[in-house]
Specification:
The structure is a single chain. With 355 residues, the protein is an alpha/beta fold. The strands form two sheets. It has an eleven-stranded mixed β-sheet, sandwiched between helices. The protein has a six-stranded mixed β-sheet with strand order 14-13-15-12-16-17, sandwiched between helices. Bound molecules: threonylcarbamoyladenylate (TXA) and magnesium ion. Threonylcarbamoyladenylate (TXA) binds next to strand 5 and strand 6.
Length: 355
C-alpha cells in the first residue's frame, strides 16, 4: 500500500482542507488515516464500520481482544455510542475536550470489533485542532488506538509514525510533536460517584477526585499482575512500550546511582534529570547520558520519554537505566509507563537488592 503523507499545522488553510477532504474519503470507504492528538498519534478508522476496525488490528499487529477508543468531535456525541450518566457529564464539563477517556456501557451502534466483544466502550474527545477538524470534516466517530506497531512505544511525532506505519495505512497526517506525549488517562464509570482509574495520564487522580467522590486505582496501574489475574482493561496485560535493550529503574539518591552505574559493565545509557546531567557526564564517562527533563517537571519528562526510548533502542547499548518516578501527580503516568518498559525491573539502591 502506498501511504500518502501530508503535513497540517493549521487545519483552516486551503491545502489542509483539501487534505482533510481526502482523509474523509479514505475513512468513508473503510480506509486508515493516522492523525495527531495532544497525547499521541492515533491510527484511525470509521468506528461504525466493523471491517475498517478490523483493518486497524491488522495494521498494528494488535491482538483482537484489545478494544479501541472511539473519538468524538463533541463530548455530547458520546450518548450516540454509550449509555452516559450524570458523572460522565461532570467529567466532560471538567476535562473535555482533552486527554481523558471514559469507559461506559456500549450501545449497539458500535460494532463488536471495536469493543473487542466487551459490553463497554471507551470514549474520548481530543483537543488537538487537527484531530478535531478530522472528526468534524469526516462526520464520523473515529476508532483509534495509538499509531505504533503493537509492543513499541506510542508515537509522539510523525517520524515515529512513519517508522512504524509507512506502507500499512492510507494516509499519515503530520501535525508536529504531540504536546503531552503519553496516552490519555482512562477511567471506568463504576457507580454514581465512583471511578476506577485504568491508565494514568495528564488528568491525574487528584484532578479526578475533584469531580468524583471515589477514585479507585486498578491494581495493574502500579503493580505487576499476578499470574492469571483478570484485568479491567485488556491492554494492561500486554508487555508495552518495551525497548529491545533491557531497561532498569533506579530507586535511590544520585550518589548511590553513580556508585552503582560505575560498576556496570558494557555500553550503558542513562536517562537522568536535566539538572544532574553535568555531574553524571563528569562521573560516568563510560555512560551515554540523556536528559529526561527537570526533576520537578514531570510534564517535560512525559513529553520526552517515548522519543528517548525509541532513539536509545537504536544505539545498541547493553543496558538502559532511568530514575524510578514518584507515583504522585503526573508522576503516576510516568511510573506506569516506565515499569512496563522496564518489565518491572527496579534496582533498589538503598537495599542494593534487585527485584
Ligand atoms: O491518548 C490516547 O488514548 C490514544 C489516542 C490516539 O487517543 N489512544 C490510545 O489507544 O492510547 P490504545 O488503543 O493504544 O490504548 C487504549 C487502551 C487499551 O489498553 C485498551 O485495552 C483500553 O484502552 N480500552 C479500550 N476500550 C476499553 C474498554 N471498553 N474497557 C476497558 N479498556 C478498554
Ligand atoms: Mg497503545
Amino acid at each position: 500500500m502506498i501511504t500518502e503523507i501530508v503535513t497540517i499545522k493549521d487545519p483552516c488553510t486551503p491545502e489542509a482542507r483539501a487534505a482533510l477532504a481526502r482523509a474523509k474519503e479514505i475513512l468513508s470507504r473503510g480506509g486508515l488515516v493516522v492523525f495527531p492528538t495532544e497525547t499521541v498519534y492515533g491510527l484511525g478508522a470509521d468506528a461504525t464500520n466493523a471491517h475498517a476496525a478490523a483493518a486497524i488490528y491488522a495494521a498494528k499487529g494488535r491482538p483482537s481482544d484489545n478494544p479501541l477508543i472511539v473519538h468524538v468531535k463533541d463530548p455530547k456525541d458520546a450518548s450516540l455510542y454509550a449509555e452516559t450518566c450524570p458523572l460522565y457529564d461532570r467529567l466532560a464539563a471538567a476535562f473535555m475536550p482533552g486527554s481523558l477517556t471514559v469507559i461506559m456501557p456500549a450501545k449497539e451502534s458500535i460494532p463488536k470489533t471495536v469493543t473487542a466483544g466487551l459490553s463497554t466502550v471507551a470514549i474520548r474527545c481530543p483537543l488537538h485542532p487537527v484531530a478535531h477538524a478530522l472528526l468534524c470534516v469526516s462526520g464520523l466517530p473515529i476508532a483509534a488506538p495509538s499509531a505504533n506497531l503493537s509492543g513499541s512505544p506510542s508515537p509522539t511525532c510523525a517520524r515515529h509514525v512513519i517508522e512504524d506505519m509507512n506502507g500499512r495505512v492510507d494516509m499519515i497526517i503530520d501535525g508536529g510533536d504531540c504536546e503531552i506525549g503519553v496516552e490519555s488517562t482512562i477511567v471506568k464509570i463504576d457507580g454514581e460517584d465512583t471511578l476506577t482509574l485504568l491508565r494514568p495520564g495528564a488528568i491525574t487522580p487528584e484532578m479526578l477526585s475533584r469531580v468524583a467522590k471515589t477514585v479507585n486505582i486498578a491494581d495493574a496501574v502500579l503493580d505487576r499482575l499476578a499470574e492469571g489475574e483478570t484485568v479491567l482493561s485488556p491492554g494492561m496485560k500486554y508487555r508495552h512500550y518495551a525497548p529491545h535493550t533491557p531497561l532498569a529503574l533506579l530507586k535511590g539518591e544520585r550518589e548511590e546511582a553513580i556508585a552503582y552505574l560505575r560498576a556496570q559493565p558494557g555500553k550503558i545509557a542513562l536517562l537522568c534529570y536535566s539538572e544532574d546531567l553535568p555531574i553524571y557526564e563528569q562521573k560516568l564517562p563510560h555512560a551515554r547520558c540523556y536528559p529526561l527533563g527537570e526533576r520537578a517537571r514531570m510534564d517535560e519528562q512525559a513529553h520526552r520519554l517515548f522519543t528517548l526510548l525509541r532513539d536509545l533502542d537504536k544505539e545498541n547499548c547493553d543496558a538502559i537505566f532511568a530514575p524510578l518516578p514518584p507515583k504522585v501527580g503526573m508522576g503516576m503516568a510516568l511510573y506506569n509507563r516506565m515499569i512496563r518498559a522496564a518489565a518491572h525491573h527496579i534496582v533498589d539502591l538503598e537495599e542494593k537488592e534487585q527485584s
